Fold this sequence. Notes:
By secondary structure, the protein is of the alpha+beta class. The chain has a single domain, classed as Alpha-Beta Plaits, CATH 3.30.70.120. It is about 35% helix and about 40% strand. It contains three helices and four strands; from the N terminus they run E-H-E-E-H-E-H. A four-stranded antiparallel β-sheet has the order 2-3-1-4. Strand 2 (about 30-45) and strand 3 (about 45-60) form a beta hairpin. The longest helix has 14 residues, at about 60-75. About 25% of the residues are buried. The model has no long low-confidence stretch (mean pLDDT about 95).
Amino acid sequence: MHHIVFVTAPSIEVARELASGILENRLAACVNLVPGVESHYWWEGKLCEETEVLMVLKTTGEKLAALEAFVLAAHPYDTPEFVALKIESGSARYLDWISESVGPGSNL
């Protein structure tokens, strides 16, 4: 099973640092960074508005728990977003590439 994971970061620098660690540890095959996301949310009883970077990660079910642990440990937010959605269907070649990229001994 493959997943798309959404994580937000406070800046492009933080997002790049997280992406590097995630990729170096083979926890995701790809991390897309989408800067300029305007986020509106409740936090500690207050309505907040911030500009963030949306991170879109592609990984496997086998790596999902380790990816979450990494994000929670490395992220500067007290409660970072970590939302995973199962990929129900997709290009077989692309899904195979995800598996190969995060698999043991990958040399891609």
